[in-house]
C-alpha cells in the first residue's frame, strides 16, 4: 500500500537533499558548542569518543527518521498516523510526530535569539568594536547586549525574518536554494579561517589538541557529553529529518546519504576546531572557556591581532550562516503540518508558524534582562533559578528530544516488519544486519543513558 501524495513536493536531486540535510545538521552546535565541549573535555579523547557515538547512535537514528518520512510522505504527525493505521499499531505512536514538531518549535524560539547574537557581533566586527579590548571589556560587551531587551528583540526579529524569507519559498525555491547557496559559502568561509589559523604560529598546537587523544582525560561526564552531542548535532528527535524524508523519492539510497551527512557534519565540526583553537592558543587564551568561547574569548583574540576585524567579521558571518541553515530546518516541520492540515497556502503557513515562533522567542529575550529573576518553576528545588530560557532549553534537550528519539528507534526497530525495512533501505545483508542491531539495541541504550544521566 502506497502512502505517496502526488501533490507532495520532492527534492529535485539527491545532492539537493544531502546539502539541505547537512545544512540542518551544521549549526551552532558545530561552530559554537562542539569546540567548547572539546575544550572542556580534554581535546582529542573527546573527539574520538564523539566519533564512535555518532556512528553507533546518530547514524542509525538518522536513517530511521528518513525512512519513516519517506514512507509517510506527509508531515511527521500525519506520517505516524498513516503508518500506525497500516501496521495496526497503537495510535499512541503518533506522539512521535507531535513531540518532534513541538520540540522544533520550542528550540527555534530561543535558537533565533542566539542567532541574533551572531548578527549583532557581525555589526560589532564591521565597526571594529573588538579592537584593543581586554578580558573585562569583552565580557561587558556581551553583558550589555544581553541586558538590552530592545537590542535583543531587534536581532531576534531580523533573524526570524531571514528564516521565514527562505522557508516561504517551499522545497525547491526555499530550502534547496538556500542549501545550494549557504553551504558552499559556509565551507569557503571555514577554509579561509582555517587558512588564517595556520598563520598564527599555534596551528600545530591546535591540531594536536584536537586530534591527540589523552585517555586519562576521558571522564563519565565527557562520554555522556559526546553521546548527547552526537544525538543532537544531527537534528534528531525534532521532526526535521522526518519532514525532510517526506520529500524524498524512492530512488535515493538512505544509508549512503546518511553516511555522507554524518561525515560532512563531523568534518565541519573538526574544521571549526582547527579554525578556533590555534587562534585561542596563539593569544594565550583558555580553550576550556565553555559557552563564552565564541562570544567572549574569540572577540578578545580578534581585537588584539592584525586584521582581526576582518577575520572576526568572516567568523561571525560563518556563525550566522550555520545558525540560519539550521533555523530553516527547525521551522519546516511546523510549516509542513499547518500547510497540510489547514486551508492556508505555503506563504500563509510559513508566516503563521514564523510569527508564533517569534512570539515565544520574546520570553527568551526578556529572560536575559527584565524577567531575569523570574523562575517559572522556582517552587521546585530542581528548577530553582531556572529562567524561561533555561526551562525551554531543559525541556527540549533533556526531555522532549531524547524521548522522541528513543520512541522513533523503538518503533522502527521493534514494531516495523523486517522485509519492509529491508526494501526501504536497499542495503547488503551484512550492512542491514548491523544497522538493525544498532537501531534495536545500541541506539536505544545510548539514548536511555543520556536521558537518565541528564535527569
TrEMBL record:
One of its GO terms (cellular component) is membrane. The chain crosses the membrane at residues 45-71, 92-114, 153-175, 187-211, 223-247, 259-281, 309-331, 351-371, 391-416, 437-454. Its main location: membrane. GO terms for molecular function: symporter activity. It is a multi-pass membrane protein. It is found in: Membrane. It comes from the Bacteria. Keywords: Membrane, Symport, Transmembrane, Transmembrane helix, Transport. PROSITE patterns: NA_NEUROTRAN_SYMP_1, NA_NEUROTRAN_SYMP_3. InterPro entries: Na/ntran_symport (IPR000175), SNS_sf (IPR037272), YocR/YhdH-like (IPR047218). Belongs to the sodium:neurotransmitter symporter (SNF) (TC 2.A.22) family. This is Transporter. It comes from Chromohalobacter canadensis.
Amino acid at each position: 500500500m502506497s502512502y505517496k501524495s502526488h501533490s507532495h513536493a520532492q527534492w529535485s536531486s539527491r545532492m539537493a537533499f544531502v546539502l539541505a540535510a547537512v545544512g540542518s545538521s551544521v549549526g551552532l552546535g558545530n561552530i559554537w558548542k562542539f569546540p567548547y565541549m572539546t575544550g572542556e573535555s580534554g581535546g582529542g579523547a573527546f573527539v574520538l569518543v564523539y566519533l564512535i557515538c555518532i556512528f553507533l547512535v546518530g547514524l542509525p537514528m538518522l536513517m530511521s527518521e528518513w525512512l519513516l518520512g519517506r514512507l509517510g510522505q506527509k508531515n511527521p504527525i500525519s506520517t505516524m498516523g498513516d503508518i500506525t493505521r497500516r501496521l495496526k499499531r497503537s495510535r499512541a505512536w503518533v506522539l512521535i510526530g507531535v513531540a518532534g514538531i513541538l520540540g522544533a518549535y520550542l528550540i527555534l524560539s530561543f535558537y533565533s535569539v542566539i542567532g541574533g547574537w551572531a548578527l549583532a557581533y557581525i555589526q560589532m566586527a564591521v565597526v571594529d568594536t573588538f579592537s584593543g579590548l581586554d578580558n573585562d571589556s569583552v565580557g561587558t560587551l556581551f553583558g550589555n547586549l544581553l541586558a538590552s531587551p530592545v537590542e535583543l528583540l531587534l536581532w531576534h526579529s531580523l533573524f526570524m525574518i531571514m528564516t521565514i524569507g527562505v522557508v516561504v519559498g517551499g522545497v525547491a525555491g526555499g530550502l534547496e536554494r538556500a542549501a545550494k547557496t549557504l553551504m558552499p559559502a559556509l565551507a569557503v568561509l571555514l577554509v579561509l579561517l582555517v587558512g588564517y589559523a595556520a598563520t598564527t604560529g599555534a596551528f600545530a598546537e591546535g591540531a594536536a589538541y584536537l586530534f591527540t587523544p589523552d585517555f586519562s582525560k576521558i571522564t563519565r561526564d565527557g562520554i555522556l557529553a559526546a553521546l548527547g552531542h552526537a544525538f543532537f548535532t544531527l537534528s534528531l528527535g525534532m521532526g526535521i529529518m522526518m519532514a525532510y524524508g517526506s520529500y524524498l523519492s524512492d530512488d535515493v539510497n538512505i544509508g549512503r546519504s546518511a553516511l555522507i551527512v554524518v561525515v560532512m557534519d563531523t568534518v565541519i565540526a573538526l574544521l571549526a576546531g582547527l579554525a578556533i583553537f590555534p587562534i585561542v592558543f596563539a593569544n594565550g587564551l583558555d580553550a576550556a572557556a565553555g559557552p563564552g568561547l565564541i562570544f567572549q574569548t574569540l572577540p578578545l583574540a580578534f581585537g588584539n591581532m592584525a586584521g582581526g576585524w576582518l577575520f572576526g567579521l568572516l567568523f561571525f558571518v560563518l556563525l550566522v550562516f550555520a545558525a540560519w541553515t539550521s533555523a530553516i530546518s527547525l521551522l519546516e516541520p511546523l510549516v509542513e503540518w499547518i500547510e497540510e492540515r489547514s486551508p492556508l497556502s505555503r506563504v500563509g503557513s510559513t508566516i503563521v508558524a514564523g510569527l508564533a515562533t517569534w512570539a515565544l522567542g520574546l520570553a527568551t529575550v526578556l529572560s536575559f534582562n527584565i524577567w531575569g529573576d523570574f523562575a517559572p518553576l522556582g517552587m521546585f528545588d530542581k528548577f530553582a533559578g531556572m529562567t524561561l530560557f533555561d526551562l525551554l532549553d531543559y525541556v527540549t534537550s533533556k526531555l522532549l528530544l531524547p524521548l522522541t528519539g528513543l520512541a522513533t528507534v523503538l518503533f522502527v526497530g521493534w514494531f516495523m516488519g523486517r522485509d519492509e525495512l529491508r526494501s526501504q533501505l536497499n542495503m547488503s545483508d551484512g550492512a542491514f544486519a548491523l544497522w538493525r542491531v544498532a537501531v534495536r539495541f545500541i541506539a536505544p541504550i545510548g539514548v536511555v543513558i543520556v536521558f537518565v544521566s541528564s535527569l
